[in-house]
Batch of 2 targets.
Target 1
Amino acid sequence: MRTVYHLPLSPFSRKVRLVLGEKKLAFELQVENIWRRREEFLILNPTGQVPVLIDDGLVVADSTAICEYLEDAYPTPTLIGKTPTARAEARRLALWFDLKFAGEVTSNIAYEKMTKRLLGGGEPDSERIRAGKDNIRYHLEYIEFLTERRNWLAGDNLTCADLAAVAHLSVIDYLGDVPWSEHVKAKNWYARLKSRPSFQPLLTDHVAGVLPPKTYADLDF
């Protein structure tokens, strides 16, 4: 059985779970509290970060490497595109969310509100949280710009770009900090992904001491 070492509100872990779900590949989840620096886990991934995938004895670490591996090993359905142009655009946008959104939004909101407490890093920095809330607006505007011109973010078909984006946004949504009412077109795109079977397990995730808003698990939010 495939195993994914993860944290429930790690967007990178969520991206891998979504890819596995879209490809209809069975897997088990193993929560890894990375702040404990468990020796057995460090052998699997010396960076000490999640996600890590174990697939028939093969160890693959890092969400991008895992998703590329899954695309190569299990190419149907494709989540990267069928042409060089489509693949380049899907990869570009996946990295936009894994790097730019993560640095400007996820690290400011999710880290300060949740991860910092788990790591014993002290009180949340309100300035960073405020910056994250400001930054998310232009990312939502970019999603709206793309979906006004395309069926999905990178083109006609669902790709890793959509899954990376929704993985990050779902974490911020769990914390109640996505201004959906101001970005209805982005909300409609998110609702399409939220209703997919691959997304449903994410709606049952919970972190002790951090309760999501009631709308988090509501498909008609």
Target 2
Amino acid sequence: MAGTIEQKLATLGITLHEPASPVANYVGFVRTGNLLFVSGQLCFNPEGELIAKGKLGAGVTIEQGSAAARGCALNLLTQVKAALGDLDKVVRVVRLGGFINSAPDFLDGPKVMNGASDLMVEAFGDKGRHSRSTVGVASLPADAAVEVEGLFEVA
């Protein structure tokens, strides 16, 4: 039976899917004590297709990038569920780190990352408010528009 957080996600029309397997020599998450570190998640949809491909400011709009960041956040949650078995074990979303595939003059990375941040607050309420870094990068794997990593305090 789904927990409170998954029920809240369901009311938003979101169902968690199976997490993506790592594509290189790393794991999807590492738990140490009450901290869960989740590896960077690309903006793949549940069917394995990129939500947005290419560079923000050079063909990818802020709205498309924000949707991609939201998809990354959903992928973070699938990893958290795999690690804990229940999203209700999240005590707090501590930090998100966002990597935005950006044209050199693109300055709106924080607006793009709001897609991920907004989902965390929608899912967890005040426990979803977090610290954050947003960095524009020259490229990402698979030419994904966005990648997001996360740090969670867990019970």
